[in-house]
Structures
1.
Amino acid sequence: MSLTTDVFPHPLAPRWYRIYYIIKTPSDFAKAINANKPVVLMFSADWNEACKVMKKPFRDMGLAKRNQAVFCLVDVDKLNDAVETYRVEALPTFVLMKDRGEKRRVVGARVDDFKNMGNDI
């Protein structure tokens, strides 16, 4: 059983995997940031155009690095505490977590900077 299955089991079939997880509750957020793998958080909102633009690069990196990290889309409208804890001031904000600490951050729709963040996973 893989880590991602342990953290968030897939409801349809155990051999399927998710490219990223949509985090809407504090308990799901706690599970995600306590994973034994690096975690890439995308703080996002459905109504934000820059977030819509960055979903494809986020999804692509999640697919390419699915065995190396856990990718989580954090809904800022539902998780105000996480937004305050991680000092999210603009959308989208990407945070790479390693060993339960922040290793790197990218703010805004900066595709090249986000792709470079993938090298640190």
2.
Amino acid sequence: METRKTKLGANHPDTLSSMANLAFTWKSQGRHANALALMEDCTQAQRRVLGQKHPETLSSLATVAKWSS
């Protein structure tokens, strides 16, 4: 994710995908709080960059809701 941030920028769609992927990895490693925080950051950025109704944004929002419950 950091490499993509450096090469593409923090708001590039590929960087945002990497953020989401890292959040899922952390979740699977038991790092629940870190995963949720990163997915929340990712969702905020996706709303700005991709829009509220973009499929990736909606998927991330659903993930945050699931992980928060």
3.
Amino acid sequence: MPWTILLFAAGSLAIPPPSIQLVPPHPSSQEDPIHISCVAPGDFPGANFTLYRGGQVVQLLQAPANQRGVTFNLSGGSSEAPGGPFHCQYGVIGEHNQPQLSDLSEPVNISYPAVRFLNL
């Protein structure tokens, strides 16, 4: 996968975290698919994104060369989808052709409607 080239000002090595959000339709059960958007701030098109759940890698995607984000699509009922929290991160090539990783995004938690049992 090609990496986006990023040139840093001297002494500035921090890469800001991406934004993350749950994309509609929102799941109503653990069998429903989950769609999570992850977008890099500023001018970082074509970055490589990683989605984590509980600190474990769930999926890797690269943004198209003219876009700053991706949407992760997780299958309902699979081991990659349930629970959370989910975080994402992106990477680019920085100074001296060294890979640079952003900070992790804020968490996104997936919750499902509570199942109610009626006593008749």
